[in-house]
Amino acid sequence: MNRVFADFNATSPLSAGAQTGMAKAIELWGNPSSSHWDGRQASEIISKSRDLVAQKAGVSPLEVVFTSGGSEANTLALMGTYFLGPSRLRLLTSAVEHSSIRDTARLLENLGVPVDYLPVQKNGVFSLETFKQHVDEFRPTLVSIMAANNETGVIFPIREISRFCRERGITIHTDAVQSFGKLDSESWNDCDLISITAHKIGGPKGIGALLVRRGTQLVATHYGGTQEIKRRGGTENTLGILGFGGACTDFPNQQDRMRIRELRDYFEKQLLETLSEVTLNGADVERIPNTTSIRFSGIPSEVLLGALDLEGVSVSAGSACSSGSLAPSHVLLAMGLSRTEAKECLRISWGKTTSRDDVDRVLEVVIRHVNRIRERRRQ
Question: Which domains does the chain have, with CATH numbers?
Fold first, then answer.
């Protein structure tokens, strides 16, 4: 069976550049902190990878702090700010953040930190005006707002949010995990703290980075050495870091993103014209180019997911970090969907290796099974 992978927001296949970088890391197995030849060689190739990641993110190499992934980067941003002065922290975030932000925010609440969650509109849009009004009322010292939602793909006005925060001396963090490689870095890289990861752009899992812009204070939450300019102690994940740098050599360009957007738009157009009772979440608003969140009325997502998987098509019902949960998506609930409606949604996300044949195959399978399931339920 020829499988079609359409869940690139969960992860992506290893790119050729990532594989080449990781093969190089296997050859140079020295500890990067050692002063002998083997250690110096490992340290040098880590520096080159750091340069590659920084270049694609539009930041300085000294602002790149390698982590175990986007979730750790998010946690480090929040907890590293908390330890600067627990009594001074006031966190403002959104109701649709990734679970790593939501769970860390709950921990901070349990530690006595005031936390407020701003809603989104029914189309998933984050209101800049509502945000500005709430900042004046809540007076946060840290704002953490994602650059684009991982389930719906809806883009947030993070550049405007960042500018507003900077004018008021508020530290601004953004989760740019789903935006890195899908949007121009200038749309989010002027924040103080920025989370990115490798496996969404063709790199390996288990490696990401928190971009700590110059002048931003942060307390380390991992100890064990002076690595990462004392911001994350412990021996570096050389294999992962070189895979991350290698993936940046295959980084999606503007032409790649345009092609993916065209495939995504074609997919949505065909579904909406062919099937009835289908609703696109985040329709008619700005989204990252690869993501479709769609509801098939009357069909539980787990039923359709199982049928597609048996046909060799991999999609999801939402965030991979929440896929084991029986609860409906908190993102869709925040957009005003009922629990039943939220459980009727699929997320289809495309990538650099997606072909038109892949899209046509997914279309054929989805349409056939939606019609089959609905016909059976009518009997």
Answer: 16-248 (3.40.640.10), 252-378 (3.90.1150.10)
